[in-house]
Specification:
Elements: E1 6-10, H1 14-26, E2 30-34, H2 37-42, E3 50-54, H3 62-72, E4 78-82, H4 87-96, E5 100-103, E6 106-107, H5 108-123, H6 133-136, E7 138-139, E8 145-147, H7 152-161, E9 172-173, E10 179-183, E11 189-194, H8 195-202, H9 205-208, H10 222-225, H11 228-236, E12 246-247, E13 251-253, H12 258-267, E14 272-277, E15 280-286, H13 287-298
Parallel strand pairs: 1-2, 1-3, 3-4, 4-5, 6-9, 8-10, 13-14
Antiparallel strand pairs: 7-15, 10-11, 11-12, 14-15
Helix pairs in contact: 5-13
Length: 304
């Protein structure tokens, strides 16, 4: 199993540090936290792979810390965080030697992608190689899972937990996975539960069954729909997941290319794939992961 990327997170706001740590660790990263520049420099002896550094901090500001980091660890890629309207300061950090910068609030998928990109820049020698599925996936340990005998109510609770809703002062956003991997008692993947599966379950059978051609012209009155949603939800409260889940996603090898993943998703109508490494599931690659890989190539670093 690959070692997780070790990220040094430097920010003077405690709540932001802790929230970011939790989200990054859920996405498979190892984190080191520092609340100021002096502490960040001391943390360099823990050998971080990538540093995330807030520009606006009391005492030693981000630019000063950046310069000292480069002196001590010239190969350490540093991603700067800046508030909206502070583009000049962010671009100054690039001149000083930062790998890149992101504006707050930043989407967690974008931040994760930027961390991996920074880490790869540190590892690469010679010509840049195309990323493989294993480097772009979400680790299985970071993906939401649930037992196949859990109820729909329990699954909704778990799925909601994957959407981290944060106060605006935390300045970071989490998109969630929008699905849950369904596991048996031996922790083997049996299927997947998506929001669409839940929506299908609450629809009455007569709305989804095959209708004669003349039924296309039927118009339901507003009274017909009233109260139906609430009633349908109550009826499925105790239904177990294995009754409504979709089949497990198609698998792909961790050493496969991203183009192979894109082709499988389009050809087999899959929104996510199970990543296999050494004959065992090791992660999930989603369509949004490929989307961010596209953006990495098409959008100049300063505009990402």
């Amino acid at each position: 199993m690959k070692q997780p990327i070790k990220v040094l997170m430097v920010d003077d706001e405690k709540r932001f540090r802790e929230t970011t740590r939790k989200i990054l660790e859920r996405n498979g990263f190892e984190t080191i936290l520092a609340e100021n520049g002096a502490q960040a420099l001391q943390c360099l002896d823990q050998s971080p792979d990538v540093a995330i550094l807030d520009i606006r901090m009391p005492g030693m500001d981000g630019h000063e810390v950046l310069e000292k980091m480069i002196q001590l660890e010239p190969d350490l890629p540093v991603i700067m965080l800046t508030g909206h309207g502070d583009k000049d300061s962010a671009e100054q950090s690039l001149v000083l030697g930062a790998f890149d910068y992101l504006s707050k609030p930043c989407d967690i998928d974008l931040l994760s992608d930027k961390i991996r990109e920074a880490w790869r820049s540190k590892q690469q020698t010679g010509k840049m190689e195309e990323d493989l599925v294993g480097s772009a996936m979400i680790p299985l340990s970071a993906y939401t899972t649930i037992n196949e005998h859990a109820t729909i109510a329990e699954s909704i609770q778990e799925l909601k937990a994957s959407f981290v809703t944060l106060p605006t002062s935390d300045l970071i956003m989490e998109t969630g996975h929008r699905s849950i991997l369904v596991m048996d008692q031996n922790r083997q993947i049996q299927g997947i539960l998506t929001i669409r599966d839940l929506l299908k379950q609450i629809l009455p059978g007569y709305l989804t069954s095959t209708k004669p051609a003349t039924a296309d012209s039927i118009q339901y009155s507003p009274m017909f729909w009233r109260g139906m949603f609430t009633s349908a939800i109550e009826q499925i409260r105790t239904v177990t997941i294995n009754e409504i889940m979709s089949p497990a996603p198609v698998s792909i090898d961790a050493e496969s290319t991203l183009m192979e993943a894109a082709w499988i998703m389009v050809d087999q109508h899959q929104r996510r794939l199970i990543v296999i490494e050494n004959d065992k599931p090791t992660g999930v690659i989603r369509e949004q992961d490929l989307f961010f890989q596209m953006g990495k190539q098409l959008i100049p670093p300063r505009l990402r």
